[in-house]
Specification:
Blueprint: H1 2-9, H2 15-18, E1 21-25, H3 31-36, H4 38-45, H5 47-53, E2 61-64, H6 79-89, E3 93-97, H7 101-104, H8 108-121, E4 124-126, E5 131-132, H9 137-171, E6 182-184, E7 190-192, H10 196-212, H11 215-224, E8 229-232, E9 242-245, H12 249-257, E10 265-267, E11 270-273, E12 276-279, E13 291-293, E14 298-299, H13 305-318
Parallel strand pairs: 1-2, 1-3, 3-4, 7-14
Antiparallel strand pairs: 4-5, 6-7, 8-9, 10-13, 11-12
Length: 319
């Protein structure tokens, strides 16, 4: 009886769909959303009950929630979405269910890839509003429009966020993330980390570079001394945790090339070119950081500003 009622509610659902698995895709865009709004994830998981209402037995409903905290702007790094498309392509999925189109993808290329796979394998797509058949012209048109709106919404959100950030930078109120070894006080001042071991380890890198002149020599000397360098975790459940790592050329370059250690606030050091982040230092000379302020409030025992530019020139020659 449940199945017949379900078929009456959703005539697009047939026995061939019910014989396969219904996949519920759950995603929240950032780790902050996962922590601060757990109800959002629970609401999406409850869509499993909707699959049961449509006629699927509970044993044939599977929830994919491994992409919690990841953006939908790209399929890269989203193992859950990759698993979903794989199951669809193998013909294992009778239904793909998400709260809305933007949960699946905010990129038209990824969205249409999923639509094409669903159409090829006869998989239905459903959200909180209805059930859609990608092989049906009207349904595919509606799904395509939803995908375009989802991508456009992400673009508009990014534009508003960038505009707000630019205004904060111009006013001097933007609080940029600080590298390892620097902390920001409640009054906005930036000071060295209170851990003396952290201070000494970072100071040692600058001292060795001033004496030896190249990163390779600095690395060799630190390894010979058995030294470790501090690093703070960024993002995830262990955000802010201090760990000590074996020195590498990358970690040494990070200390020597970051203007924050010279008491300078610089925004726009990296640019996005063809979807990838590129250091502006390696870009043509016509590309400059969009904002640089050496007068930002910074309380450091020793300012490295006068030597920062020559050091960066030397770094570019040995990079």
């Amino acid at each position: 009886m449940i199945r017949s009622k379900s078929l009456e509610k959703a005539p697009k659902v047939h026995a061939r769909h019910l014989e396969r698995t219904a996949y519920v895709y759950v995603r929240q865009s950032t780790p902050q959303q996962v922590r601060r709004n757990p109800e959002g994830g629970e609401n999406q998981r409850e869509l499993a009950e909707r699959a049961v209402d449509l006629g699927w037995s509970p044993g044939r409903v599977r929830v994919i929630d491994s992409d919690l905290g990841l953006s939908g702007k790209s399929a890269e790094g989203r193992e859950g979405f990759r698993e979903l498309t794989s199951e669809v392509s193998l013909g294992h999925a009778g239904l793909v269910l998400s709260y809305e189109a933007s949960r699946l993808a905010r990129n038209n290329a990824d969205w249409y890839t999923l639509l094409d796979l669903c159409a090829l394998r006869g998989t239905l797509i459903a959200d909180s509003d209805g059930v859609y058949d990608p092989t049906d012209y009207n349904d595919r048109l509606l799904l395509g429009l939803r995908g375009m709106m989802s991508e456009a919404e992400l673009h508009l959100l990014r534009m508003r966020m960038d505009a707000g950030k630019t205004r904060q930078i111009e006013k001097g109120t933007y609080r940029q993330g600080l590298p390892t070894g620097l902390v920001r006080l409640d009054d906005g001042r930036v000071v060295k980390h209170p851990d003396r071991r952290v201070q000494k380890a970072i100071a040692l890198v600058f001292e060795r570079f001033s004496a030896l002149g190249t990163m390779s020599k600095v690395l060799k000397s630190l390894l010979e001394d058995g030294a470790s360098l501090p690093r703070f975790r960024y993002g995830g459940p262990h955000h802010g945790e201090l760990i000590w790592c074996r020195p590498t050329t990358t970690s040494i370059h990070g200390f020597l090339s970051n203007p924050a250690y010279a008491g300078a606030f610089v925004y726009g050091r990296r640019a996005t070119v063809h979807g990838g982040a590129v250091d502006r230092d390696t870009a043509p000379s016509t590309v400059e950081p969009i904002y640089c302020n050496r007068t930002a409030t910074c309380s450091l025992a020793s300012r490295l500003g006068p030597t920062f530019d020559p050091r960066r020139t030397n770094l570019s020659s040995v990079r």
